[in-house]
Amino acid sequence: MEFALWTRGGVMLFIEQEYAFRLSIRAVGDYLKRWGFTPKKPIKRAYEQRPESVKQWIDQEYPAIEKRAKAEGGEIHWGDETALVNTDVRGRSYAPKGQTPVTMAVRGTRQKLSMISTVTNQGKASWMIIDGAFNHEKLIEFFEALVADGKRAGKKVFLILDNLGVHHCKPVKAWLAEHQADIEVFYLPSYSPELNLDERLNADLKHVISTRVPVRTKAKLHAAAKNHMAFIETHPERVKSYFQDPRVKYAA
Length: 252
Hints:
- By secondary structure, this protein is an alpha/beta fold.
- It has eight helices and five strands, in the order αααβββαβαβααα.
- It has a five-stranded mixed beta sheet with strand order 3-2-1-4-5, with helices on both faces.
- Strand 4, helix 5 (170-178) and strand 5 (183-187) form a beta-alpha-beta unit.
- The longest helix has 21 residues, at 51-71.
- The two termini are 38 Å apart.
């Protein structure tokens, strides 16, 4: 079948193709409901993702990291970078039947910030908002802050990141080699963002930013992001809830 989603229409065509029997859309919906099928928003997954690598990560690599962290009195952090813009509108809005809701969008004053952050399954969030592009210098600056915080707590940092090029560049590798007693970095399988717990924090922040009245200046965008991140930082139960996603519950 050439369609991407299993809608009622798609199931109807499949039944007709396989069994030469045509049902109505309503009948297909009734059958699906009776069989326990409900409509769900699909998870996006890259074609390039290798399921065997994901399984190995879940079954072997992460448990080994967790075991080492416990043995060495370390703390596991899940890290990620994201971009924040003042033109991103998400979610739905109620309106009278037949009328499409309108939101006021910013035009000609698009502002952008970057942010790097980490979360732990104890409910801790660490973050740094960046004015401009994210690069290896900002990454190392964030590493330094994580290490300083880890030293205050008497814990080595075990940091899990996505497989981005900036995470593997020579300056980053050199810095990590000099500080391996304080921090170690591990990488998720390629094309597997759904495994990264910090993606939930990014989604949380972007949802809040996008549902507010659009801001016109970078300073206001920065303030909005900072305020919500400060809120997240002081609400560990909110961070812990990210770990309840069935896809990543192995790390809870």
